[in-house]
Amino acid sequence: MKSAAIVLLCLVAGAVCQQEPMPTNQTHHHHENTEIENWSFTYDANTRMMLVIKVGYCYIFKMTPDEINNIHTDAGLRTVEFRVLNEIDDAYYTVVPEGILNTHLQKSCGHHVKSYYLVH
Prior knowledge:
disordered N terminus, alpha+beta, 120 residues
């Protein structure tokens, strides 16, 4: 009796697991390129500025007193990150020569950065 149950179980399992062949009329999908955009956010505690770094560029944002008070919380950091991302495309910038830029900001922006912009 046990062997009959095992045979029946194997037959049922085989029927359930059997795969159908792939259809021959498959549609071809167009290859889509991967899109990558890298942004890095750094709060510089010495200057109390938010830095947004993107491949060779460092955008320097002033922060409000409320943002500075809340920057060390997840919610506070995310709030500032969203604000600066929303402002970055429509903002006015002042190009800051490396020679007059605060050394703390230079270090926070990183050595790969070639252009510094103070965002208004």
